[in-house]
Every structure is written in C-alpha cells, then in structure tokens.
Write a structure and sequence with these properties.
Blueprint lengths: L2 H19 L3 E9 L2 E9 L2 E10 L13 H17 L1 H4 L3 E10 L7 E5 L4
Parallel strand pairs: 3-4
Antiparallel strand pairs: 1-2, 2-3, 4-5
Length: about 120
C-alpha cells in the first residue's frame, strides 16, 4: 500500500473517531458503488451525513477543503442518494447532509482537523 493510501486511511480513522466523540453514529465506511466511494456515512439526530475526508501533509498545494469542488460535491450528493436507496431502513425520514473533514499535518493522528458541516 502506498504511503498516501496509508495516510488517507489513517485520516479516515481519525475522522471517524472525531465524529463518534461529537455525537455522530458511524453507520458505514468506504461504501462503494459503480459511481464511486463514500468515505463515511453517519447519522446525527434527523440527519444522514455523507462525510468526505481529505488528508494532506501540508496546505502547500491548497487547503483540503479546496479538493471538493462543485463537480466532486455533486458526485458525493449522487452517491449519498444511491446509499439511501440501498439502505432505506437507516435513511428513512432523515435529511441528507454533506460534510467535509480536512486533516492537515504530517501525522493524521495528531494533525489539525477541521470539519465543514452541511455543504451545499
């Protein structure tokens, strides 16, 4: 496994731990379909939250949030809709929400974590 893949996995682990501590319930991770992958699916209150995690060693080439442009966000919304269709009992009655977690630093376990909620 490439170093960037290990860093990404460590970032997703850190994000999941953060979400749990913040009162979210993680219901799925690394869900895949023909259109792509969702890093984390969580619930919190009446929301079903699709979470994209971006982990970077530095912000030299831009902040992690900048990696989620309009096209990527639209794809994540489509993936969220696909997830809800295949997991209807969990999704029923919940409002779909897109969040981004950016992690910046050499070691994802101790790096700066930022959480952007309800991206439109």
């Amino acid at each position: 496994m490439a170093l960037k893949d290990i860093r990404g996995r460590d970032g997703e682990d850190r994000a999941a731990d953060y979400l749990l501590a913040a009162g979210y319930r993680v219901v799925d991770r690394n869900w895949r379909c023909s259109e792509g992958e969702i890093d984390i699916v969580a619930t919190r209150g009446a929301s079903l939250v699709i979470v994209e995690v971006k982990t970077r060693r530095t912000a030299w080439f831009g902040h992690p949030f900048e990696a989620v442009d309009a096209r990527k966000a639209a794809r994540l919304w489509r993936l969220g809709a696909a997830w809800t269709r295949t997991h209807e009992p969990v999704a029923r009655g919940r409002r779909l929400q897109l969040d981004i977690i950016g992690i910046t630093g050499e070691d994802p376990r101790t790096a700066i974590l930022e959480h952007l909620e309800d991206v439109r």
